[in-house]
Every structure is written in structure tokens, then in C-alpha cells.
Amino acid sequence: MLFDVFENRIIVRGKIIASKPLHIGASDNGIDPVQVDLPVLKDRDRRPLIPGSSLKGVLRSRLEAILRNPALKGSWSSCNVINDDESCIEKYIDDIKERNKDNYRAIAEEIYQKSCDVCKLFGNKQMSSRLQIKDMMYIGERLEYERRDGVGIDRDSGTAYPRAKYNFEIVPAGALFDFYMVAENLEEKQRKLLNLMLKLLRDGEISVGGYASRGLGQIKLIDEKIDEIDKNNIASYYGLG
Ligand SMILES: [Zn+2]
Q1: Ligand 1 centre distance from Cα of residue 26 (Å)
Q2: 37-38 β-sheet, strand order
Q3: Of the four, 43, 100, 114, 146, which is 20 to 30 A from 36 by CA?
Q4: Co-location of 152 and 173 in the same domain
């Protein structure tokens, strides 16, 4: 079973390049919607970053959409956690807990087995994710941000701004970010999903942030290096052999 015990770890390192300008907005909290410039999210040194959680969310919804294709029905399963309130496991959870009483290991195993292929990788309310993506930090010292004219309504969010015109800040195309992703104890199917995500990222089929309808947000994974650690090479990988 894939619990408690170390089976394997896959580490993907690389760079993310903004192949189109990016606008990943700073948190809605404390942002005045009538202010002229909508800023991008920045670290303390005013460098832009892409939150790992944002990319994870985009990748998850993309995988869910692909796996819900009728052609894949029967061989793959996916809930629709981005759009639905509940993940696939919630309808079973009371029954699982009732039947297994205080046997927490049995509960955890059954939750895993009954979860869909996407939840088995990304987790759900009942179990943690096996995939981590670090926040992608800007590579470089300073960045000159650019501005774009907005229109009255952001079609992506549907938000109507009181001003007919406003500006939003963008990170120019070509900006580079550090990429670091770790996946642990993946089964064969989840390994395939990981490979699919990397392919989508390599091929520039993933967009992050706002204004996608205006062609913003496309990113690409480049300079990728994959390390795999398992029982056979863990000693040599960590220099403990
Ligand atoms: Zn699910």
C-alpha cells in the first residue's frame, strides 16, 4: 500500500517563461476596485511571482476537463472540484467512517481507493495532495512593469469596474521564473497524469492569471530536469550509500 512508506519521489526542476505578458493580480483583499492601476502580485522586493497554488488550480481543472471526456469514461475518473462544491469522496465519507469505526488506517485507505484519479494526485478535503508546486519566484533583480488599458468589464471575472477605463499592470513576456515541483508515492495512473501536466506546460497550453481572453497568461516550462528517487537509488541520491 502507498501509505506511510516511502515508495518514490519525483522532483521536477526547471524554469517557467512567460511566453505572453502575465497579470496575476494581487489579492483582492485591500485592493480598491476603483483605483486606477490593478497591480500584479509581488514579493517583498517588488519582484513578481506565480503562486504554486494558482498553477496547481489551473492544472487540476485542465486535467478534470480532459478526464471527463466521454471517450475516457470507464478507464479514468474525475470529479469536478473546481465547479462543484464537493469532491467525489464526500458522498461516501459518512459510510466509510461508520463502517471502519476507529480504524483510521482503514478509513484512510478506503478514502484513497474510492477517490477519483485526479483527487488521488491533488487530494481533497479528506486526504492531502501528493503534488507540491513551490511558488515560482522571478529570476532576476529588477523588473520594469508595463501597463495596459483595461475596459469597463473584465470578461474573465465578469467584474464590472465603475470606471470606463482603468489600467492594469503586467509582467512583460520573456520574464523567467524558478519552477520546482515534487510528487510523492504516485501510482502508475497518477504518474501518467504528471507526465500529461508536464507536456501541457512544455507545449504552452497552460495560462495563469487574468485577461486570458485578451491573450495574456501563457507560460511554458523550459530547461526541465527530472530526478526520480526510489528504494533502489535513495542511498546514492542522498550520498548515503
Ligand atoms: Zn475526486
Answers
A1: 29
A2: 37-38, 166-170, 146-150
A3: 43
A4: yes
